[in-house]
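Incident review: delayed structure delivery

Summary: a single-chain prediction request sat in the queue longer than the usual turnaround. Root cause was a stuck worker, restarted by the on-call engineer. No data loss occurred. The affected request and its eventual output are reproduced below so the record is complete for anyone auditing the incident later.

Affected input:
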Amino acid sequence: MSIFDVTRANNGITISRRKEYAYENLCDKFKNKKAEMFIVTVDPDEDAVPSLNTHAGQEFNYILEGSMKLYIHNNEIILNEGDSVIFDASHRHAMSALNGQKAKFLAMII
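Output delivered after worker restart:
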């Protein structure tokens, strides 16, 4: 696929990137893409401190469902449904779901 790649609702490819999150890849067949797009689900675990990670590039997250806390570079930012954030992913970061409910967000890694 070099012109377009359609992913139908709930038919993204499940991939394993980090054990704390469930990833649905939304563009697995498109060739020479400049970004990765995922639906990411974070299950609630009020007692767990998420492990921080880094990767190259920038990351954009748009909250589709629930609320989550973003840990980034000594900051803790609460994001609710409809909120978005972009950040330099080379800084240590992690997400945790809040209020005992899963959080789901669109992640674009550029």
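Verification: The domain at 32-109 is CATH 2.60.120.10 (Jelly Rolls).
Action items: add queue-age alerting; document worker restart procedure.
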